[in-house]
Protein 1
Amino acid sequence: MAQVTYVDLKDDRRYTVDVEGGATLMQAAVDNLVPRVMGDCGGACACGTCHVYVDAAWVDRVGLPSGSEAELLSGLLETQPNSRLACQIAMNEGLHGLVLRLPDPQL
Amino acid sequence: MTSTTVIVGAGQAGGDLASALRQLGYTGRIILIGEEPVVPYRRPPLSKAFLSGEVSEEALYIKTREAYAKHGIELRTGLRVQAIDRVAHTVTLSDGSRLAYDKLALTTGGRARRLDLPGADKSNVHYVRTIDDIRRLREQFKPGKRLAIIGGGYIGLEVAAVGIKKGVQVTLVEALPRLLARVTGPELSQYYEQVHRRHGVDIRLGTGVSALEGGSQVEAVVLQDGSRVPADLVIVGIGLIPNTELAEKAGLACDNGIVVDLFAQTQDPDIVAAGDCTNHDNGFCGRRLRLESVPNASEQARVAAASICGQRVPHASVPWFWSDQYNLKLQMAGLSQGHDCVVIRGSMAADSFVAFYLREGVVIAADSVNRAADFMMGKKMVAGRLRTDPAALADETVTLKSLVA
């Protein structure tokens, strides 16, 4: 089981959770009641409520957003080059220790 | 003494309400009661990827069963709440037991409106609301079968798209003169009609159903215009009825939904309600509404949880919806009823556009197809009640971001 840490940018609280391989990082956050990751569309890449910033050290391993994800991200206001939608990142052992930062979700 | 919150209905709203209570630091008991045997699950994929078989049942679950236990949420499935005693602060369950509550949340959702015709109870007539509905349906949803869909709303159209992809022969019947009439303007209706016809759906508009013919199974759907649609199976998608009976029996005001205020509060200070079952005040829309949507259920659940925790958070979000059909991602923000101007940005022919709806120069709604970025901008325009030049909205050399900022 690999671990991911979510950091709430509002108060710098850290949530370190165990994530099973294959689970999305939106699902892992929702399962663990991590705030700010809403996943309102259930992972359909339709709402932007699981927007995360990938820690700089992890950007290469996590990879870049795909077509529809990149499209949706370009419509969000507070995006950075390391922005991703957590629903589009599937967990694997190589991501053990990953840190994601959580901006204010845009509803 | 510890306080207890009982949540009646374990769908999207009920599950999210339980989670939101814990996120807000609620330390009392939380008992979440669901009629279906499974954990709260996402219903939108029922008419899409779950029907097509692309996703498993487990993938629908909002959280695993363990996740509820881990956060001290007592999930009791396969149980119905039969009655509420508001004076004694108890609910009676279908197994005869009683539970005491300090706060009660009604997240009872809705059920598929049934077709009121002889023969509608035959085994090849289907509805799309629960996992069980889809399991039953999938046995008959096979390549080459003749499918008659009654209702040209989201459910009917999404099922039609899955059917076409699977090699099912699809006829769709809609009583109103256009598709999606309840949720969008004529431009989008015409666009979706043409898309579905192009994919091979036989669409019959402006005619209701007068009879279902057949023996032990329905063999044909007879339309009010006299025509006959032979069918191996029938899917009915004619709307949702809010589950308000429990609230009504308890003497709570109901009017096409359980009546709640901006804070998801019913007239009883110890009872909140959220989701598809509510007739609620929406601070953004400035009027009462009943919405059938996941984002509304989640947002209102969070509002209701705040009310239980003694915080006053108004429910004032912009309603929004989405629908996946073929390779088209439709996202809609705001409510377009009452618009006096429609602006199309992009190209319907290229399946990539946004329809902006304006009233007196203010953007009140935006429907986008395959334009997620423009949708997010459109939603911000709606939320900010942006007053803008229609020509600029249509001009692709002007970025939407520049209009919002």
Protein 2
Amino acid sequence: MNSGRWMRWVWPAVPIVGALVVTSLLLVAFGAAPLEAFQAMYDGAFGDQSKTLSVLAFWIPLLLASTGLLITFRAGLWNIGIEGQIVMGAIAASWVALSLNAPAVILIPLEILAAMLAGGLWAGLSAVLKTRGKVHEIFSGLALNSIAIIFTNYLISGPWQPPEGGTFRGTAPFQPNALLPLYENSRFSPLSLVLAIIAFILVVIALQGTFWGLKLKAIGQNLRSAFLLGVSSEREMILAMVFCGALAGLGGAVRTLSWFDSLRQSISGGIGFMALLVVMLSNYRIFLVPPIAFFFSMVLNGSITLQLRTQLHSSLGGILTELMVLFVILFGDWTKLGFSRKKEDDG
Amino acid sequence: MQIELRNIRKYFGPVKANDGIDLTFEGGKIYGLLGENGAGKSTLMKILSGYQPQDAGEILFDGQLQNFSSPADALEKGIGMLYQDPLDVPAFSVKDNYLLGRDRRFVLNYQVASQELEEMTGRFNFQLDLQTTIDNLSLGERQQLELARLLVGGAQVLILDEPTTGISTEQKEVLFGSMRKLAREEGKTLILVSHKLEEVQELCDHAMVLQKGKLVGENEVPCSNETLVEMMFGRIPERSERPDAKFGDTVLELVDVQVPTYRLTIKNINLSIQKGEIFGLAGLEGSGQRLLLQACAGLLHPDHGKIMLSGQDVSGWSYHRMQNAGVGYAAAGRLEEGLVAGLTLEEHVELAKPKHSFFINRKELYKETETKIEQFQVVGSPVTKADELSGGNQQRLLFALLRDNLKLILLEHPTRGLDVRSANWIWEQLYLRREAGTAIIFMSADLDELFERSDRIAVFSGGVMSRILETKETSVDEIGHLIGGQA
Amino acid sequence: MDSSPLILTLASIVLASTPLIIAVCGEIITERSGIVNLSLDGSMLMAAMMGFIVALETGSIWFGFLAGMAVGALFAFIVAFGSIRLRQSQFAIGFVLTLLGDDLSAFLGQNYTRIPGPMVTHYPIPVLKDIPIIGPIFFNQDIVVYFAFILVAITWFWLFRTQPGLRLRSAGDRPEAGFARGVNINFQRYLYTIVGGALVGLAGASYSLNIKIGWSEGITRGLGWIALAIVIFGGWSPIRGMFGALLFGATKALATYLQRTFPEVSVVAFNAIPWVLMILVLLLVGSDFTERLVTIAPKSLQKPLQRLLRISPPQALGSTFVED
């Protein structure tokens, strides 16, 4: 009995350590010293103020997307379409930035609203395809992701191409009024942090403290029983997706209005998929999400310095985080590995 | 070939599905295997056909010990089982389905398949479209194909599990004709697992009755139905005096209702239930009672006839609308269709409330749940998860979740798996409801319960509802007959 | 002169579609056994990288292909093992592997970017290549292309005309029935997931060794997702999958052509067509539109139409099977 409880505390660290070990082995195979590499990553993240601020700036959209995914995962949905929702949010914000001329006090709220609306609707589309059309959200998500990216490319190379001609990289920089106010010379927008915190708190309250959150939990666990208890699954699923999409869209707006200053080709930078990994790694525990997202941001930003300093490809950061998630998924549940004494006896 | 089963035992946890069964089957005869649900018939046959291994005991063919590793292995040795839902592949074509696992030949030989199938269908007068896919066939046709496959596969012994549920009368005649032919002309052994006494009388030579995992009786057939009924259901229960209740206005009325599903269609249902009445539905699993309950709950809808709740036509109303109109429903599968395994008791209580506030007041909810726990004597705390409760407590929880002041409560097997004390207590709660004017319709496999608790009873058999009986004026025998399929 | 621009374009479409065709066949096999291998995109990237590097270092194209197949098989094995033995979500595992494959291939291949490497030799088939129109398009290619089409035929034959194919399909359509007939369901799933994965790896390697010679970060990115989509809207059938892949290649070529002729009109929209198609087809599958369509059609056409339009997924796709 004692070993059981001990295991439950210690075991979660094993996959994480395992990932670190495998990554280190990878580094050694490339003739690099693991400690040096990790040090480079750390310096890359926190070496000086501007770097730390970059970590913060990257963290915000990731946190927003992850927060949104907490809602959809709670409802048992695989919202792979989050990438597209981020992109559509960015597009909507860009549209406001490029179409209107107004002081920042008006522009910025409008951009935020537009972004949340666009992201929400894009997610809602996936949701309706699922509830009415029985199309699995993974596939509608994939399709809508691609369509959103194609749409971005179309806009950048077409109606929104910069006056000097399209390089297919991005639109011309937006008017200063449209951009989020940044802290000093960094890409970090304190406003976005405030918004992210508010969003996170709201989601925590919604999931833990409201009746709606409880309904989602029931749907995610047992659709049939939830139905018999009186929960209308269609409506709740759609709402869950829409709210997630809105948060993702907001993340897209933050990306395009602070990290960048224009709409770019890969505006989301893979943040949507990363957010899925964050939530998976946290094992769907709400309060682990912000620190894990921060960890991801740290690793990914640090990897850029890693590349500069050690000539090792920056994808190492991604490898580390992805190995962690893989090992946690495969080996995180130690009861399924055959160590436990529980006999699976179903009759 | 002579089949002998010696001291077969199979346990599922504490449940003794087969508790030391000895049976012998001779070639050339048709046997009927009877028993209530949970008597152990299916388990025994699954063991005999190789689908699952026994925990103890032996199977002997002509005195030789047998050990089956799989149903395919058993078929090779001569035993095949036709399941109620045939184990075929709906997406496959008829020929592909026939050829699956048939031999080791690499390339599929459709000509051979056609030949063999045509020969089989000719022999037994099956009318089958061999060019189509399995999911285009009716249940009866799928059965015929499975039968053909088993025979070609070398089955000397055929087990048929409730084969006549869901097939047409013509198909039944064809099936019975083929069974007789196989036994009389080809010397094969047939075992018919059924609860339809009439069919057993019509077809079988010998009947065996299982009850609670043991063999309780055997008889040559045809015999009197009473003999069989008594073996199946045991002693006639003591009839307790139930207080006469006052009934109110009609709360539920079914007029000429027909509810179609893939497997079964219930027809010509005419029913009128009054406030405060307790109405029992008897019959064995799959006979249609469940469909009736689901139709009254709005989970299924009739394609003919009307359902009226307090005078209003609710035939097409959705389940949630019925819920809000005062209809409560508790399914038999507690964790599959009623409770959410990972949610706590207080979360269930919150979900089941008719009116909700936006925010959950945890403190109040805790107290409310505690009250309910006390009221319904659930062993658990508000933060215990539903799957951590015992079966009896899960049932109590389901009850606790029913709303107040309901017009109609629909229950599937309300006391299944409960000890006597819990069952009694549940019924006390139901009596309280009934005094307040709620009508109750419930289905049960326990004849004692039906007798003791219902004001009136109807029996379902093969999708047909019998005439409605006043409990005071009927007997176990009559019920047993009706269950066996005699109107 | 049979090298008109149209002919050449069509030939290049056939060539460019080859990796997709091979990957689609592989994933069809996997999904028919009941497992969804969501790691396709990452697998193909890893295979493209490994294939190229091994071919470069060993000087042999064939070792390169073998390496690609090994990588694809490994990724697929992880999905199968994690799903069957460890009972975790196929989707989750496949998804992480996709991202991991992307990053890992970028990392491991970092010293090999933009290096010229060995390529599959051109191998026009004598006699056949001189058939007007069809000849230059289909028979003036290389061995990988021929393999792709032969693979489609073999896959079709295996799935629908052989006993092993029946067993495979039973694992994905109704495992209980397969079990009753003596099929070892989990073995089928392991086997065909690995085989399918190897084919996916082959497809990835064929990209870096045959289409876009050499390795650079993310060269096959997106192809895996598209292959997954084609499997669905090709109805889990290799022949329709082949047409789907060709169609995809054609729309891409069409887009490039239109872009050149009408530079003002942004025809990037053409790239969206396969995706819109996929959603539409999935909607069709979910509804009973196809059934209604078949009932409207003339009697004689009904059966063949039904077989043609059968787009339903293997019923047991994505679920676990536990023997008694």
